[in-house]
Amino acid sequence: MLVSILAIRRSRNQSRLEAINVALLVEAERCSCKQRERLAEQEKTRQFQVLEHIMDSISQGLMMFDRDFRLVVCNAAADVVFGLPAGTFRAGMMPDDILSALMSIGAVSKSHIDDILAFYFELGRRSGPPSSTASALTYEPWR
């Protein structure tokens, strides 16, 4: 009988130890996930800073648009190229916002707005290689 009681206690203790081990493993995995998330966030921040540094070191104005024609990325030189105050071009701007900024300094005349917007839409419609899109950017009816 004493042997049975000891076996039951040992079994209970074994079950408790297994439960504790499982809980410790779950906690270790949770901490590991948080640490991986933190490291991934740090890496993302570092990569963003590198990209920002590269963008700002380019002396030519650089503007990138998404398929909805929103300005996604723009470097500081873009403002300088158009003679606008720093920070005029911002992510999220639409072509009409950009044209308004350019009209405000006389870089674009109202008579050319339809041509310019058609040009933007044609660029957005294209699905060719970047070189064909880049070559089309030499068209400047607004000057």
TrEMBL record:
| Pfam family for this entry, one | PAS_7
Gene3D superfamilies in alphabetical order: PAS domain
Domain of life from the UniProt record: Bacteria
InterPro entries referenced in this protein's UniProt entry, alphabetically: PAS-like_dom_sf
**What name does this protein carry?**
PAS domain-containing protein
Species of the source = Rhodopila globiformis (Rhodopseudomonas globiformis)
The taxonomic lineage of its organism, from the top, reads:
Bacteria, Pseudomonadati, Pseudomonadota, Alphaproteobacteria, Acetobacterales
